[in-house]
Design brief:
The protein is an alpha/beta fold and about 375 residues long. The chain has 14 helices and 12 strands. The protein has a 7-stranded mixed beta sheet, sandwiched between helices. The chain is globular, with a radius of gyration of 21 Å. Belongs to the bacterial solute-binding protein SsuA/TauA family.
């Protein structure tokens, strides 16, 4: 099965869409006793599960991801056929892919029914979950931790020197956008989602950010890999903040690690086609395992081949080496970090206070881990 790839940037509308299917509502009368209510919910859950299982695997899975090294599990999983093979084994014959510039654009496509699953940053996933009241998506696995930095022009050596500067992020409300706004806020520098404040933040497509920085029209940017490395190695930027230094491990148990990329699925799609989601998670886990076992040259070659196929451009050897050195590929979504990510989004003014209960649906990942343990 050869994946069909469509490139979508933040300012474009997805080319294909479908109406979201109506979910199954569970109504429990308020006058029921606690025991009867619980029984009704459990019975409805069993019926829903049976209906979903009967639907069988989907004929097609439409997957979104970015052309970033932080999305290497998607890049390699698609390029090397790991995801397509797992899907085909489960009865899903077609894998179609779309390449996005940033998370909010991918979320728009997911909410519109134009894609069924996506690799994206945690903050767009949180925003969608909150806005939909928990109905839009579920995080089914982690993909990458680390790999984001605030890089600036030479001469800026402290956060205080950022006052009056113009900085960029990939897109308003994206994970790096929230991280930058939260960092500035902690140092007493105000920002506004619509522009203005002590520091001006211009959400800008990554390739354009690179060019604007080269032209001296930006003072810096908070970027994922490989764009942070590109600005450092190819445009003379300096690292002011490596985001890993802001995570001490108290929330995740893993110092220096923070979720950069997670795999999400539409809740409607997951309810209708759990077999396909199970296969997607299996193929994804296989890609993560390959990345963690491959040699550095093998990883670089595979990622560059995927980047060339999806965007037509490869990365210089030094850039991809530096980028890979900043990233940990993992299926662990680091859920302990998400309350802090939500709080940062609230402080940045791009999301609202909410309960994140139900954001994660890790049953397929846990089943896979149990099978792996049993086979050892």
């Amino acid at each position: 099965m050869t994946p069909q790839t469509i490139r979508i940037t933040a300012d474009e509308t997805p080319r294909r869409g479908r109406a979201l299917k109506t979910g199954i509502a569970v109504v429990v009368a308020l006058l029921l006793g606690a025991g009867a209510a619980l029984a009704a919910v459990l019975a409805e859950g069993q019926r829903t599960t049976a209906t979903a299982a009967a639907a069988g695997p989907a004929p097609e899975l439409r997957l979104g991801y970015f052309g970033n090294v932080t999305h290497a599990p998607a890049l390699v999983g698609v390029q090397n056929g790991l995801i397509a093979d797992a899907l085909r084994d489960a009865g899903t014959e077609t894998l179609s892919t779309q390449v996005f510039n940033a998370g909010p654009a991918a979320i728009e496509a997911l909410n519109a029914g134009a894609i069924d699953a996506a690799y994206l940053g945690p903050n767009p996933a949180i925003n969608s979950f909150v806005k939909s009241g928990g109905e839009s998506l579920a995080v089914v696995a982690g993909a990458a931790a680390g790999g984001a930095q605030l890089v600036v022009r030479p001469g800026i050596a402290s956060p205080e020197q950022l006052r009056g500067t113009v900085l960029a992020t990939p897109q308003l409300g994206g994970t790096q956008d929230v991280a930058l706004r939260a960092y500035l806020g902690r140092h007493g520098l105000a920002t506004e989602p619509g522009g203005g404040g002590d520091v001006t933040i211009n959400p800008t497509e990554n390739a354009q950010t690179f060019k604007l920085f080269q032209d001296g029209k930006l003072d810096g940017a908070w970027l994922p890999e490989p764009w942070a490395s590109r600005l450092v190695l190819q445009a003379g930027a300096k690292v002011l903040v490596d985001e890993k230094d802001l995570w001490d491990g108290r929330l995740t148990g893993k110092p220096g690690q923070f979720p950069t990329t997670v795999l999400v699925v539409s809740r409607t799609f997951a309810a209708d086609h759990p077999q396909t989601v199970e296969a997607l998670v299996k193929g994804h886990a296989g890609s993560v395992a390959w990345l963690n076992q491959a040699s550095e040259p093998e990883k670089a070659n595979a990622i560059n081949a995927a980047l060339k196929a999806s965007s037509g451009a490869e990365l210089p050897a030094g850039v991809i080496k530096r980028a890979l050195g900043n990233i940990t590929f993992t299926t662990d979504p680091l859920p302990g970090a998400f309350p802090q990510l939500l709080a940062d989004g609230v402080a940045a003014g791009v999301t609202k206070e909410a309960d994140l209960t139900g954001l994660f649906d890790l049953r397929w990942l846990e089943d896979l881990h149990r099978l792996e343990e049993a086979s050892r």
